[in-house]
Specification:
By secondary structure, the protein is mainly β. The chain has one domain (1-82). Helices cover 9% and strands 16% of the residues. The chain is built from one helix and two strands. The protein has one helix spanning 42-49; strands spanning 21-27, 58-64. It has a two-stranded antiparallel ribbon with strand order 1-2. It is elongated and about 50 Å long.
Amino acid sequence: QVLKGYGQSYPPAGYLVAYGGNLTGYAHIPPFKGCGVGEDLDPLFTSAISSVGKKADNYTKMTQAPLCVATNPEGPDCPPKVPKPER
Protein backbone atom coordinates (compact mmCIF):
# COMPACT_ATOMS: atom_id res chain seq x y z
CA GLN A 1 0.00 0.00 0.00
CA VAL A 2 1.09 3.56 -0.60
CA LEU A 3 0.65 6.47 1.77
CA LYS A 4 -0.55 9.57 -0.05
CA GLY A 5 -0.65 12.98 1.52
CA TYR A 6 -1.71 16.36 0.27
CA GLY A 7 -2.29 19.82 1.60
CA GLN A 8 -5.37 21.95 1.33
CA SER A 9 -3.89 25.39 1.84
CA TYR A 10 -1.55 27.79 0.13
CA PRO A 11 0.96 28.65 1.33
CA PRO A 12 1.40 25.19 2.82
CA ALA A 13 0.63 24.92 6.52
CA GLY A 14 0.70 22.22 9.16
CA TYR A 15 3.08 19.32 8.63
CA LEU A 16 5.79 20.00 6.05
CA VAL A 17 8.59 17.54 5.26
CA ALA A 18 11.25 20.28 5.47
CA TYR A 19 10.16 21.39 8.95
CA GLY A 20 9.11 18.04 10.39
CA GLY A 21 6.39 17.49 12.92
CA ASN A 22 3.86 14.82 13.81
CA LEU A 23 2.13 12.52 11.36
CA THR A 24 -0.82 10.68 12.86
CA GLY A 25 -3.48 8.36 11.56
CA TYR A 26 -4.82 4.84 11.50
CA ALA A 27 -3.26 1.98 9.59
CA HIS A 28 -4.76 -1.15 8.07
CA ILE A 29 -2.33 -4.05 8.47
CA PRO A 30 -3.16 -6.89 6.05
CA PRO A 31 -2.88 -10.61 6.91
CA PHE A 32 0.64 -12.00 7.13
CA LYS A 33 1.90 -14.51 4.56
CA GLY A 34 5.04 -16.63 4.53
CA CYS A 35 6.15 -16.04 8.13
CA GLY A 36 8.15 -18.71 9.89
CA VAL A 37 10.71 -21.25 8.77
CA GLY A 38 9.74 -24.57 10.33
CA GLU A 39 6.17 -23.73 11.21
CA ASP A 40 3.47 -21.43 9.87
CA LEU A 41 3.38 -18.31 12.06
CA ASP A 42 0.92 -16.47 9.80
CA PRO A 43 -2.17 -17.13 12.00
CA LEU A 44 -0.35 -15.98 15.15
CA PHE A 45 0.89 -12.70 13.62
CA THR A 46 -2.36 -12.06 11.78
CA SER A 47 -4.51 -12.47 14.90
CA ALA A 48 -2.16 -10.40 17.08
CA ILE A 49 -1.34 -7.54 14.71
CA SER A 50 -3.52 -7.41 11.61
CA SER A 51 -6.78 -5.53 11.36
CA VAL A 52 -8.54 -8.12 9.22
CA GLY A 53 -12.31 -7.76 9.37
CA LYS A 54 -12.01 -4.76 11.68
CA LYS A 55 -11.83 -1.07 11.03
CA ALA A 56 -8.31 0.30 10.68
CA ASP A 57 -7.69 0.58 14.40
CA ASN A 58 -3.90 0.56 14.53
CA TYR A 59 -3.20 4.13 15.63
CA THR A 60 0.14 5.39 14.34
CA LYS A 61 2.09 8.47 15.37
CA MET A 62 5.44 9.38 13.82
CA THR A 63 7.48 12.42 14.84
CA GLN A 64 10.00 13.70 12.30
CA ALA A 65 12.76 16.23 13.02
CA PRO A 66 13.44 19.09 10.57
CA LEU A 67 15.55 18.13 7.57
CA CYS A 68 19.31 18.52 7.57
CA VAL A 69 20.34 18.67 3.91
CA ALA A 70 23.76 17.90 2.43
CA THR A 71 23.78 21.17 0.47
CA ASN A 72 23.69 23.13 3.74
CA PRO A 73 25.46 21.04 6.44
CA GLU A 74 26.04 24.18 8.53
CA GLY A 75 22.31 25.04 8.48
CA PRO A 76 20.29 25.64 11.64
CA ASP A 77 18.82 22.12 11.59
CA CYS A 78 22.17 20.27 11.30
CA PRO A 79 22.69 17.98 13.00
CA PRO A 80 18.98 17.22 13.32
CA LYS A 81 17.53 17.84 16.76
CA VAL A 82 15.97 14.74 18.26
CA PRO A 83 12.23 15.37 18.72
CA LYS A 84 10.77 14.90 22.19
CA PRO A 85 8.75 11.66 22.23
CA GLU A 86 4.99 12.11 22.66
CA ARG A 87 2.13 9.73 23.30
